């Protein structure tokens, strides 16, 4: 059973997440085969203050 994990900034709507899950599942089945029902997608919302790149918090780099 394949598992696709996505970590992203908080703020996407339920509809955006629904579309993302659908697209990821369809892409996996197209590229790797198998059944859509076997693909698990885990979405994790991360606050910008809990994410850093190159020693800088994303909250500082991309303030709202």
Structural features, described:
This protein has helices at 14-32, 58-61, and strands at residues 3-9, 40-46, 52-53, 56-57. By secondary structure, it is α+β, with helices and mostly antiparallel strands. The protein has a single domain, classed as Macrophage Migration Inhibitory Factor. It has a two-stranded parallel sheet. Strands 3-4 form a two-stranded antiparallel sheet. Helix 1 (14-32) links the parallel strand 1 and strand 2 (40-46). The protein is elongated.
What is shown here, in short?
The chain has helices at about 15-30, 60; strands at about 5-10, 40-45, 50-55, 55. The chain is an alpha+beta fold and about 60 residues long. A two-stranded parallel ribbon has the order 1-2.
Overall morphology: elongated
Mind telling me the CATH superfamily name?
Macrophage Migration Inhibitory Factor
Which fold name is given in CATH as the topology?
Answer: Macrophage Migration Inhibitory Factor
Biggest sheet descriptor: 2 strands, parallel
Secondary-structure arrangement, i.e. CATH architecture: 2-Layer Sandwich
CATH class label: Alpha Beta
Number of strands: 4
Number of structural units classed as domains: 1
Radius of gyration: 15 Å
Strand content: 25-35%
What is the topology, as strand order, of the major beta sheet? Answer: 1-2
Secondary structure: helix percent: 25-40%
Helix and strand run: EHEEEH
- Low-pLDDT runs: none
Amino-to-carboxy terminus distance:
38 Å
Q: How does the helix and strand content classify structurally?
A: alpha+beta
How many helices? The count is: 2
Average pLDDT: 97
């Amino acid at each position: 059973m394949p598992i696709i994990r996505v970590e992203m900034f908080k703020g996407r709507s339920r509809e955006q997440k629904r579309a993302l899950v659908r697209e990821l599942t369809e892409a996996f089945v197209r590229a790797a085969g198998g059944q859509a029902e076997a693909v698990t997608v885990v979405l994790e919302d991360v606050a910008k203050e809990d994410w850093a790149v190159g020693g800088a918090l994303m909250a500082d780099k991309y303030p709202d």
